[in-house]
Amino acid sequence: MSEVGDLLDYLVAHHGGKAEAFLKRIAARHEHMGFGSMATHKQKLHRWKTGTHPDRNTQFALADFLGCPRRDVVELGWPAWLHRAVPDALLAPRRATPTALKAPRKAGETVERRRFMITAAAGGMALALAPGAPATARAGRRVGDGLAALHEQRLIALRHLDDKIGSGHVYNAAVNEFDMITGALRTASYSEETGRRLLAAAADAQRAAGWTAYDSGHPDRAETHFADASEDALSSQDPEVLATTLSFWAIKLYSTGAPQEAVSLVEAAKVHGRATGSARMLAMLHARASRAHARAGDLRASDREANAAMDAYSNAISLTEDLPSLYWVNLGEIHQLLGSSALNLGHPARALDHFQQAATVGLAELQESYDGDSFPRGAAIYEARAAEAHLELDAIEEAVAVAHLAVEHMGGVNSARGSSALADLRTKLRVHRSVPEVRNFLEFTA
Q: Which residue range is the domain that position 321 belongs to?
């Protein structure tokens, strides 16, 4: 099939799956724009696929329907402008050019547009149009699964370093790892399976770069990394990497004023989370959705996702037998996330109940309590939220006691998110500076 055929097949499938219904929607736009009526028989679409160019007004109507600017139709011509409406990853079976192997993105292609197309591809279109593997390289030194395994192990080490020391020193390492992997993808020869693993590793390296950029206080840079990671994960067909990437991207979005966009990403992540077969993965994604809905102020949706998270977690296998990327997800983590949601929704008592359950000593023997020693940055952020909940309940002494724990956990950790959480807590405590314990804390942390 021609490239324009691939593009049109995606668009038809994405907009209902029926050629005539797709054409009728374009025809309605055509008439609304003052261009008159337009035929909608499916032979028209076949002619477009086989070389007939739609007239300019029809292209304008199609572009308007797809949300593409009219200038693209004029400047790029048919069918080049259609690329602006179709994620490149979905054409990988025929072009074999994953993001890791591409030249820089086209000027004017915004991260927001890429995010929209990634969400569409990763969600409803994932099963219908699963992208193929990267093309098997035919030249260069031969590499096998051993190289992919080495990169996978190094990425695991980067995750744990980020947990322990924060993102400041890890970002450059993640970018360098991506560069090494893409070097192999471009210059080495390998089997299809090895190519998939290397591309999935490249996606995970970009995810790590996105996360550490965000945690270091560079949200715009993080967006680009997350978009690249998602497109490579789509091309690799690795559901674990894609679900994980979208969930981390969602954190950035709901934390920077875009909770509805975060909800869309998490819903797409669930499609691939189910494909992993991990109940723990689904529990984490439901908890993440609860956070996004809470940030949007939707109590009912947040509670629904919170209940779904607990239900899913009840079916999780042991942590040591589950997916390696979920090493940080236990029942304590789920409670921390649900407590954070409750706090956002204005329920401090419920939030404290979750925070306290996260640290329940009785769960420690089952490795289900939150491990603040292994995750000091996360512990500091959650403790800052617990202190805030105490403040909202006028339990000032308890708030200060927990605030001291947060400061202790942040010692030696380089994280803009953690530092911001403590700065926000100090601001809220200043209202109570007449209380000796508060005054001492503010002086201690000045």
A: 277-355
Q: Kindly state the average pLDDT of the residues 304-316.
A: 97
376 and 301 within one domain: no
Residue 413 forms part of a structural domain = yes
- Which residues on adjacent β-strands are paired with residue 189? 142
Q: Residue 241 CA to chain centroid, in angstroms?
A: 10
Number of domains in the chain: 3
Read out DSSP for 84-120?
GGS-GGGGHHHH---GGGSPSPPTT--HHHHHHHHHH
Average pLDDT across the chain, whole number: 87
In a domain, 245, yes or no: no
- Altogether, the residues listed in the chain come to a count of 446
Q: Are 210 and 248 in contact (CB under 8 A)?
A: yes
And the tokens for 213? 């950029």
User: What is the reported pTM?
Assistant: 0.75
Instruction: Answer with the one of 122, 152, 177 that is the final residue of a domain.
Output: 122
The model's pLDDT over 115-168, given as tens digits with 9 standing for 90+, comes to 777 776 665 444 433 444 454 555 678 999 999 999 999 999 999 999 988 887
Task: Report residue 35 as tokens.
Answer: 């261009």
Q: How many CB atoms lie within 10 A of CB 177?
A: 22
Average pLDDT (240-244) is: 96
